[in-house]
Write a structure and sequence with these properties.
Helix content of chain A: 40-55%
Oligomer: heterodimer
Structural class of chain A: alpha+beta
Strand order of the largest sheet of chain B: 3-4-2-7
CATH superfamily of the largest domain in chain A: Multidrug efflux transporter AcrB transmembrane domain
CATH topology of the largest domain in chain B: Multidrug efflux transporter AcrB transmembrane fold
Low-confidence stretches of chain A: none
CATH architecture of the largest domain in chain A: Up-down Bundle
Number of strands of chain A: 19
Largest sheet of chain A: 5 strands, mixed, barrel
CATH architecture of the largest domain in chain B: Up-down Bundle
Shape of chain A: elongated
Order of helices and strands of chain B: HEEHEEHHEHHHHEEHHEHHHHH
Strand content of chain A: 15-25%
Number of strands of chain B: 8
């Protein structure tokens, strides 16, 4: 054997061996996409305005506080829209002082002074930053919740600027998961001032018909057997962030409940408030709905329970969301796909059937038409499929239903290069060239055509990958890998097989 | 073996004007159909709404399914029978209108649940009231916890066995009878146990997909962008590798590929979903593949026969490559045909689109790519040719 040929053989065997090693055992190494495996695919959008809204509210409080401390007179601070507010009723004489103060305290807000007011507008860069942060935090919170829930191999990733994709293989209860993800999980304990009452008028009667400045109206959660309206203090006694641990517990009637312990600081505050308000009701508010409002019977320091006629499932979910933390912004679902496991198995069966038929058709055609050279092409084709699986396994790419279609199509397309070369060899033979030089010319002359045509198809597949989603990405990946492998197998490997099997002195060629 | 014993002598380009007219007629008819006529049916991916695939345990008539939906006022939802055994159906829930943007998806999903409830009817209600579980829609976790008390430490394994029997080729997602379990090798004592604790509901939901309006809009935009960018990519690549004339010709050709395929597809009344975009881009790739092979041969022949007029060179090249064209489009056509027949409903539309495209791709190379280059050379002769 010639030295060059030996190296080429070695290289081919090495690549093939590597790919076989990577792809085996195939059931474990080739990951199935959601459409074949079954599971839930959710696309949700983060309502980033919520984050801007919260930031604006906080800033209004911060600046009015600041004005108070520095004895700057003002009337009100009011939000115009998320990221825009105004403080009015300023004294014209204090303008310069106010300006200095604001410049000292903020870089994120643009300000403009008018006669007796100052307008605050959040800078575009700050808006982008806040929005981005909201999405990142939401992503993390959702990931924490899913992790606590326990799903194997979940995929949770950002898509575009404000969207998040959640893929959960093997889960088939979308409503439950959706609720688990969507609940904002803002938990607060607030002292009850009045209620429950059926309507606002009755509720506010003892307070002269208006809501006191330090209070707010919160609705009870009918699911928990607490319909009606409550009047509670605006300032929370403790909140979700004061919790140190949460676990499953029971209330005094042995109903499922969540028992918690508090951080030292939260415990001190809780002890102080409960000690001073024995006999009053303390509302437990989750996402602005009152879960329960038990009376304070005794001073409580660092632990307690959250009760509210929960089912076991609800207690479990509540523990998950409390452990994972609150969402920084609300979310909205855009897309929801639930694929049952039976559909996936069916798709695999039909896909394999189609693939098998396609391979057999192509193979028998190649053998009938090109005889021994056809076998050469078939071996190249098999190499192509092996390399495809090896690379898919290496990149942990998912096999999807369109991916199977891509694979089958690639089988049809990959013989194109062989056909081009074989036809050229025939032409050269017809022109009277001897066997070795006809083979050599066949491979060299058509190389550019093969290279160009594969590359342009790859170009379109790359854009398909770029803009496609889920299963379509799988299709694009399969096509790209297989076309790249094709340039190796149809040109290099196929040539090598000719060189190895056809002696230099051959006068006949079975093609 | 040879397709042609001697080099064929077809004067392909003699018919270029007739071909251009045929192309124009097809595209015009297609565009009329799309924009004025029935329009392109957008599937759930690009439109919005809910798509449900359901399998009944017993063969059911489509009229019966429709009747059940009519009873709840959803009789106008398109229903399609899938598979050959009359058990599997696909229902597209009609669009929900006049709903606040935030809640659109929720209402789509609710509509889906409403349809499922309508299909179930009163089936299983009395059994559920007795505390029995539906073995045809139970998930693995619940089944395992149902089996565990009776079969200690075997619950999970048995649940997996039962559910993999449920999704095998014979049952396809729903058991018709408990005998099916025994046939698929579930131990007799387990079957007896399940008979006491479960019932066989009339259907199982294979998939339930709801897509809101925003996603459809995003996907439409992405599909158009992907198509346009890949056309631009190819124009640049071919203009660099060949001449500008070839690049321009390729773009015309590919645009025609997309237009003709969409036109013919629109007449089929099939829905456009994401895989159709994949098919279109594959057709584009396949067609350009063919075009490049011909261009490459033309370039080579131009060097060999300097005196021959371009049109004759093109005819010669097309004839030289005719065998190859037949064979390669033939093998792709065979594989696509296999997908079309055996690939199942999701792949079927894709394969149908590819069937059109495979033939169309060859046609467009001969009757658009070559004529455009020809016209271009006539209108903008290169300096060397003028001299």
């Amino acid at each position: 054997m010639k030295k060059g040929l030996r190296w080429k053989t070695l290289l081919t065997v090495a690549i093939l061996g590597l790919c076989v090693f990577l792809a085996l055992p195939i059931r474990e190494k080739i990951k199935l996409g959601l459409d074949l495996k079954g599971g839930i695919h959710l696309v949700l959008q983060v309502m980033t305005e919520d984050a801007l809204n919260g930031e604006t509210d906080q800033e209004i409080l911060r600046f009015t506080d600041l004005f108070k401390k520095n004895s700057i007179t003002y009337a009100t601070g009011a939000k115009e829209k998320p990221g825009k507010f105004a403080i009015t009723g300023l004294d014209a004489d204090q303008q310069a002082k106010t300006k200095d103060l604001i410049d000292q305290y903020t870089r994120d807000w643009d300000t403009s002074f008018m006669a007796d007011r100052v307008n605050f507008t959040l800078k575009p860069t700050a808006v982008l930053f806040l929005e981005d942060q909201a999405v990142v935090q939401t992503l993390e919170t959702i990931r924490n919740r899913i992790d606590q829930f326990g799903v194997s191999e979940p995929l949770i990733q950002r898509q575009g600027t404000k969207q998040i994709v959640v893929e959960l293989p093997g889960v088939d209860d979308p409503e439950h998961i959706k609720d688990l993800i969507k609940v904002t999980a803002v938990l607060n304990w607030k002292l009850v001032k009045g209620g429950p009452a059926e309507d606002e008028a009755t509720l506010l009667q003892p307070f002269g018909g208006t809501v006191p400045e330090d209070a707010e109206i919160v609705r009870g959660d009918p699911k928990r057997g607490h319909p009606g309206l409550y009047l509670v203090e605006k300032v929370a006694t403790i909140g979700g962030k004061d919790l140190r641990t949460v676990r499953r517990g029971t209330d005094e009637w042995n109903n499922p409940a969540v028992s918690f312990t508090l951080s030292p600081e939260g415990g001190r505050r809780f002890e102080q408030v409960t000690g001073a308000n024995i006999g009053r009701a303390l509302a437990i508010i989750l996402d602005n709905k009152i879960q329960s409002a038990p009376n304070i019977n005794t001073r409580i320091s660092d632990s307690g329970i959250i009760q509210g006629q929960f089912t076991n499932q609800e207690v479990e979910d509540l523990i998950i969301v409390l452990k994972a933390g609150a969402l920084p912004a609300g979310i909205k679902y855009l897309e929801q796909r639930v694929i049952g496991p039976a559909l996936g198995s069916d798709s695999i069966r039909t896909g394999l059937m189609a693939g098998l038929v396609a391979i057999l058709l192509v193979m028998s055609f190649m053998i009938i038409y090109y005889r021994i050279a056809g076998i050469n092409a078939i071996i190249a084709l098999i190499f192509n499929v092996v390399i495809l699986f090896g690379v898919l396994a290496y990149f942990k790419a998912n096999m999807t239903l369109p991916g199977i279609a891509g694979l089958i199509l690639a089988i049809g397309m990959s013989v194109d290069a062989n056909v081009l070369i074989f036809e050229r060899i025939k032409e050269e033979r017809a022109l009277g060239k001897n066997v070795p030089s006809a083979i050599s010319l066949g491979f060299s002359r058509d190389f550019t055509a093969i290279f160009d045509s594969n590359l342009t198809t790859i170009i379109s597949a790359v854009f398909l990958f770029q803009f496609g989603t889920g299963p379509i990405k799988g299709y694009a990946v399969t096509l790209i890998i297989s076309l790249l492998a094709n340039m190796f197998t149809a040109v290099f490997v196929s040539r090598l097989m000719f060189d190895l099997t056809i002696p230099k002195t051959a006068t006949k060629l079975s093609i | 073996m040879e397709i042609f014993k001697t080099l064929p002598q077809v004067k392909f380009l003699k018919y270029k004007y007739i071909a251009l007219i045929i192309t124009a007629v097809i595209v015009l008819a297609g565009m009329l159909n799309i924009f004025v006529g029935r329009g392109l049916k957008l599937g759930v991916d690009f439109g919005e709404g809910t798509l449900i695939r359901v399998i009944f345990k017993n063969p059911t008539l489509i009229a019966e399914v429709r009747k059940q939906l009519e009873d709840v006022g959803l009789g106008n939802s398109p229903i399609q029978e899938l598979g050959k055994n009359g058990r599997e159906f696909q229902i597209r829930a009609v669009e929900v209108k006049n709903i606040k943007d935030e809640n659109v998806l929720e209402s789509h999903a609710d509509l889906g649940n409403k349809i499922i409830a309508a299909l179930r009817g009163t089936d299983g209600q009395s059994e559920t009231a007795q505390g029995l579980k539906d073995l045809n829609s139970i998930d693995q976790k619940s089944l395992a916890s149902l089996l565990e008390p009776a079969f200690t430490e075997k619950g999970a394994g048995l649940a997996e066995q039962v559910l993999s029997a449920r999704k095998n080729e014979a049952n396809q997602g729903a058991f018709a009878d408990y005998a099916d379990l025994s046939r698929d090798g579930v131990p007799a004592e387990v079957v007896t146990f399940l008979k006491g604790k479960t019932f066989l509901g009339k259907l199982n939901i294979l998939s339930l997909e709801s897509v809101g309006p925003q996603v459809g809009k995003d996907l439409r935009k992405k599909a158009v962008l992907a198509t346009i960018w890949s056309l631009i990519g190819m124009l640049i690549y071919i203009a660099v590798r060949f001449k500008l004339a070839n690049g321009v010709a390729a773009i015309f050709t590919l645009t025609q590929d997309v237009l003709i395929t969409i036109s013919l597809y629109s007449f089929s009344g099939r829905e456009v979903n994401l895989p159709i975009i994949a098919a279109l881009l594959t057709i584009v790739g396949f067609s350009i593949n063919d075009t490049i092979v011909i261009f490459d041969r033309i370039r080579e022949n131009q060097k060999a026969f300097r005196k021959m007029p371009l049109e004759e060179i093109m005819n010669l090249s097309l004839n030289q490559m005719l065998g190859r064209t037949f064979i390669t489009s033939g093998t792709v056509f065979l594989t696509v045909m296999a997908l079309f027949i055996f690939g199942g409903p999701v792949i079927n539309d894709f394969a149908f689109c590819m069937l059109i495209g495979t033939i169309e791709g060859v046609y467009s190379t001969i009757y658009l790519a070559c004529p455009v280059v020809l016209f271009w050379q006539k209108w903008f002769p290169s300096k060397r040719a003028r001299r």
